[in-house]
Amino acid sequence: ALGKAIDINPLYNPYIWTDQEGKVRCDPIEGEAYMDREEEYPYKIQEEDLCCRLFKEHGFLWGGSWQGGEKDYMHFSKP
Asked: At a CB cut-off of 8 Å and minimum separation 6, what does 22 contact?
């Protein structure tokens, strides 16, 4: 309601957070195989790739660069 948000390839770029018990989780749950961002696989968004650079050039913020325990690798938003 306050801006624009776009999610790209959620399976390969899941939202990752730590629950109250300290367990690392992801959404969608099917994206567990893609939680390790050090691994190489198709459709993975990284800060230096074309997808991320283009969104950032147009004023979007990338959820993969959030500070703290949460990362939303699929998410681009523009206030």
From this structure: none
Sign of CA dihedral 42, 44, 48, 50: positive
Is 79 in contact with 70 (CB distance < 8 Å)? no
- Report the residue count for the chain: 79
What three-state secondary structure class fits 53? helix
The reply to whether the predicted model has a pTM over 0.85 is yes
Helices of type H across the chain: 50-57
- Name the 3-class secondary structure at 33: helix
Gyration radius of the chain over CA positions: 13
Query: Do the beta carbons of residue 74 and residue 66 sit within 8 Å?
Result: no
Per-residue pLDDT tens over the stretch 7-29: 999 999 999 999 999 999 999 99
Are the beta carbons of 65 and 72 closer than 8 angstroms?
no
